[in-house]
Known about the structure:
Blueprint (H helix, E strand, L loop, with lengths): L9 E4 L11 E5 L3 H5 L5 E8 L9 E4 L1 H4 L4 E4 L4 E4 L3 E2 L10 H14 L23 H4 L2
Antiparallel strand pairs: 1-2, 1-7, 2-3, 3-5, 3-6, 4-5
Amino acid sequence: MKRISLRGEIWYVTGPTDPAEKNLRPVVIVSLDARNRHPGASTVLVAPLTGSVERDFDTHLPLSPEETGLPASSIRCEDLTVVKKDFLVEPKFPLRTLSNARICQIGGHSTFGHGMPAPSSYSTFQPLTSSTGFATPSSLAR
């Protein structure tokens, strides 16, 4: 049985029509673990990684090799996409898991990439939930 992909993990993806000689593409799992674990959900939300770090795009989030276990790369936040779980390929060697703060930064960069105003600071982006995972009156008052 295939292991369940979890939020922040780096996996590889292949498409149903990709030729066998095509390299697998690294992605970071962005969807919530409740969805990732749900037996009725056949897809996950991912953000693709790119090794093209020499270009400086506002919608790309740079990652260091220490953070990922891969060569220097960037998350292409403007290209969030849904993929079938069947197309995920677990890495052959252990990769790092990105922190929840980094995943929240993907969301901030993604909204900017889709024409919405950029938050004043991606590093301070906080979800509107309490430790229980539900919105509270105080979190909504921010």
